[in-house]
Amino acid sequence: MKRIMFLVLAxxxxxxxxxxxxxxxxFTTIDFPSAFSTTASGISGSxxxxxxxxxxxxxxFLYNGTSYSxxxxxxxxxSGSSGTYAFAxxxxxxxxxxxxxxxxxxxFLYNGxxxxxxxxxGSSYTTPFGISGSxxxxxxxxxxGTFGFLDNGGSYSTITVPGxxxxxxxxxxxxxxxxxxxxxxxxxxxxxxxxxGTFSFFGVPSAPNxxxxxxxxxxxxxxxxxxxxxxxHGFVYNGSxxxxxxxxxxxxTLIYGIDxxxxxxFYNDSxxxxxxxxxxxxxxxxxxxxxxxxxxxxxxxRFSRRAREHRS
Length: 312
Known about the structure:
By secondary structure, this protein is mostly beta strands. It has one domain: TolB, C-terminal domain (Neuraminidase, 6 Propeller). The protein is built from two helices and 24 strands. The strands form six sheets. The protein has a four-stranded antiparallel β-sheet, with no helix packed on it. A hairpin with a 2-residue loop joins β11 (about 135-140) and β12 (about 145-150). α1 (about 1-20) runs antiparallel to α2. The radius of gyration is 23 Å and the shape is globular.
């Protein structure tokens, strides 16, 4: 009887390690000094970008893991929510937007020393939101609606989901673009293949009409969704499995950027404050991964041997 219990325990351990589990992250809060609101929106290696608001207005920031640098685009009007927003980073290049004194919105690319405009011809505003190398994605509006765009070295291409009331391309990795579109039913995630010009659509199973796909790294998409009582949760989607991500104790979590397994975004606290965060996966000790299958194998061997002895 003891040997049977030993085998059951071993197999239970194997099942626990083999079954898909809710992802666990170590979370680090990112609050720009003196700011009353901070959002982390993009990550590339150890570099994080985002934006913050203080008494003087809204500014972009760059955080290298130890210190912060403020980003303020030339011509930006800083007052309240008006100012400079940094949305994504790839290497030393950063994309975002700024508002002028008249409330106009302009896209920019910052290479570490100078700002260059990103504006789709004929648009009323352009919002670059994702970057990978020299490839930039985002969305723009004109008199006929809101559309996604791909900027490849200054050459713009429009991306539109057929039948959508709005298309938002927000993340890019390799030859794929992530984003969401709107229709009469709500908000739906997609992955767009640059090479084939085709869409793959998806939605969080519990929130198929409230799925916001944001950043992308490899084949993994990150973003957020609303639950049935309209609380916001982050998610990571690897093409087959959705994993919910919530900063512990938060009143709402949204992931904007992803690089490898690391994620950034913002969460709201119980008082309504907004804080940026960095999430890094909690590793499973390799010793445990090696131990569980070995234990099961040993138990199976002992059980089988004992059964043969009994039969003989």
